[in-house]
Design goal:
Number of helices of chain B: 2
Subcellular location (chain B): Nucleus
Pfam families (chain B): LSM
Distance between the termini of chain B: 39 Å
Mean pLDDT of chain B: 86
Function (chain B): Plays a role in U6 snRNP assembly and function. Binds to the 3' end of U6 snRNA.
Subunit structure (chain B): LSm subunits form a heteromer with a doughnut shape.
Structural class of chain B: alpha+beta
Helix content of chain A: 10-25%
Low-confidence stretches of chain A: 1-22, 98-103
Mean pLDDT of chain A: 71
Radius of gyration of chain B: 14 Å
Strand order of the largest sheet of chain A: 4-3-2-1-5
Largest interface: A-B, 31 and 33 residues
Strand content of chain A: 35-45%
Number of strands of chain B: 6
Strand content of chain B: 35-45%
Low-confidence stretches of chain B: none
Order of helices and strands of chain B: HEEEEEEH
Order of helices and strands of chain A: HEEEEEH
Oligomer: heterodimer
Number of strands of chain A: 5
Structural class of chain A: mainly beta
Protein name (chain B): U6 snRNA-associated Sm-like protein LSm5
Helix content of chain B: 10-25%
Radius of gyration of chain A: 17 Å
Shape of chain B: globular
């Protein structure tokens, strides 16, 4: 009742987590596998955004990006061809985004 | 004994339902929890971020992220399963 089931992914939360169907559950590593090579938006905890194509990343969440654009307070401040973001920079979130449509 | 619930079990039960996340600092997020790992990195759908405006910290800016996101667990402070965000709790406080 409280959580209106909007699509099939939200219905029937299984009692035992381990047997949950794949589409119901997406761990962070599944997410990262899915967005590798895709356009992403990486936000540091400072609020700075880096938008580009995710080339690779490791267990520290160090990130290599291509065609990177740096946005401070939403304003484009610089562009980098290749860029490395050290993992401990307090990344806040990484979102998959279809730039050609949304931005 | 058997009615003891581990913290991560509680979060596991919240998968597929709305969750409210309070970060260290003033940022809060809501969204549908899709998954998490041992670091409490979170995958969220339909995430909405509530963060203080960089120029005027007393103003909270609401931003719909409009994508599936990965939230780094580093700054996660509190998780509220079923929580729908600061707007509801503000309303509750004012009554």
């Amino acid at each position: 009742m409280s959580s209106a089931a909007t699509d099939d992914a939200t219905k029937a939360p299984s009692k035992d987590g381990n047997s949950a169907p794949e589409q119901n559950k997406r761990s962070p590593s599944d997410f990262l596998k899915a967005v590798l090579g895709r356009p992403v938006n990486v936000r540091l905890s400072s609020g700075t955004d880096y938008r580009g194509v995710l080339a690779c990343l490791d267990g520290y969440m160090n990130i290599a990006m291509e065609q990177t654009e740096e946005y401070v307070d939403g304003q484009l401040t610089s562009k980098y061809g290749d860029c490395f973001i050290r993992g401990n920079n307090g990344k806040q979130c990484l979102s998959e985004r279809n730039f050609s449509i949304n931005l | 004994m058997s009615n003891r619930i581990l913290p991560l079990e509680l979060i596991d039960k919240a998968i597929g339902s709305p969750i409210w996340i309070l970060m260290r600092g003033q940022t809060e997020l809501t969204g549908i929890l899709r998954g998490f790992d041992d670091y409490v990195n979170l995958v969220l759908d339909d995430a909405v971020e509530y963060s203080p405006d960089p120029r005027d910290k007393s103003v909270v800016v609401k931003k719909e992220l409009k994508a599936e996101i990965l939230l780094n667990g580093n700054h996660v402070a509190v998780l509220v399963p079923g929580g729908t965000g600061p707007e509801d709790s503000m309303a509750a406080r004012s009554t």
